[in-house]
Amino acid sequence: MAARAAIQPDLHGDDQARRNGHQPCAFTAHQDPRFFMTDLQVVEPQQLELGVSSGMLEASAALCALKITLDRHARRFVGQAYLNDWMGGPGTCAFWGDEFLEVVIPFLRWEDGHSRPFQAFVDPRFVLGASIKGKPEDIAAAEVPSRIKKYAETFGSIDNVHYIWYRALGILCAHEGKHRVAFMRAHDQPAIAAWVSEAMYPDADRITIVKPDEGEEWLAILDGRYVQVLRRPEVSSAMMRAYGVKEARWRELVDMPDKDLVIQAVRQRNFHNQPRSSAEEDRALDLDELARKERSDAELVSRTIHDIEPFRLDWKRYWFPVIACMVVGILLKLFDSPKTDEPALVLLGVACGLAASMSLLKFWGPRSVAGRSRAFWRP
Questions:
Q1: Do 231 and 89 contact (CB within 8 A), yes or no?
Q2: Cβ atoms within 10 A of the Cβ of 334, count?
Q3: Where is this region: Disordered (predicted)?
Q4: Would you say the pTM of this structure is higher than 0.85?
Q5: Strand 171-176 to strand 246-249: parallel, antiparallel, or no bridges (unpaired)?
């Protein structure tokens, strides 16, 4: 049986495992410049122990089974359209496992980096594959035994079969070797020989699911600061509950901004639709940034009448009395009579005052017309 080089200890993965109440994995290691060749040990590939609760295992297995079912509708008339609607974007075939998981799990790629790849035997019931170019029944019966033997025993290179393991969630996504997942499940095989890289995921106590009031969005909050929309809220909340994430109403949260401001910002950023970027930061609302903007908008500033947007001055109505007062004043002054001098000076003064009022009149108010004092919610 093939062997692989492993690094011990895993300085990052072991700490994460202990925080989650699991035993450290003896054959995983994150990329770290502190590791050198002297740290390498040869370890026989072994069955990948997911090490999560029974509830999390059940939820992960159910999600993977759902993916298998959905893949069977790919490339079909209404089936592909349904898949595209569920995923929230265009497609012509089955979607990759990580794309599928990203729709369900908030902040999926928030933590940076993967472990160095290692060899392990992986239970296909907990892998999100993708039947893109064919389904298990497309394999000729005479070829099935050799395929099973190959997939169960041969690791090959990382370009042949490479799975990303979200250890905290007890689930893997097939980056390479996507089709063999459905094939091995269809033939009730217990394991696939695969290269595996571990990916980190935030601890459950860092995440809160916000249940909506009627007509509002389901939200996920990370570290009390970053907000994402749950695009498939019922499925997402079921997975997050199994993970141990707590749910709450917005009014139950402490030191949070006005909910209407957050909902408005989320809708303006169009977080409900398929994101244009895979970067989690581009799909999250930063509450601290929102607070800074609101404080800036609420800052008192001085404006002239020219600066009050979106309102515009009616110049015809403004200049008519100015010109009228000036013309009448000049005409009265031309009479050079004591009876007309005083009215002429008054009219000329009014004309000059009106003309100068545009720059002399000052208005004090918030920087933004929509600025509100409640922007000062966060110190």
A1: no
A2: 10
A3: 1-23
A4: no
A5: unpaired
